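== Sequence and structure of one protein ==
=== Format: two labelled lines per protein ===
==== Data for this protein ====
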Amino acid sequence: MLALNLAHVLETSSLDLAGMQALIDQAFYLGTCAAGGSEAFLLAVDQDADYASPNFQWFRARYPRFVYIDRVIVAPAQRQKGWGRRFYTALFEAAAAARHTVVACEVNAEPPNPASEAFHQALGFAEVGRAVLEGRGKTVTYLVRACG
């Protein structure tokens, strides 16, 4: 998972091994494809996570109960095989069963990520805010989808 994350730092963000392990240890949901998530993974935490990410903190300040998709990465060889949709479907079911109110995430607006934007829109996510991430050269669009 760490190698896959490092190959997609522009779309997500950099994590070292300790940071990745900390997220895994407190994951609300972790979906993987292939051994150790080397081909695809989705990692999500809930509002109780101990996580300093400014994006996570943005949602924490606005939603009392939520699941936050921190990163979803699919290796190029695994794209268009339905992994993203499978991960999201399982996450939505788990979030609803745990009585969360929303599933939240962000998509890069700058640099743009039109494929991710279209994917999230097709799954029913709606924009609830935007932020410029200082020092990272990114603008993100915050998205939520109701559970259930």
The beta strands are 29-33, 40-46, 66-74, 102-110, 126-133, 138-146.
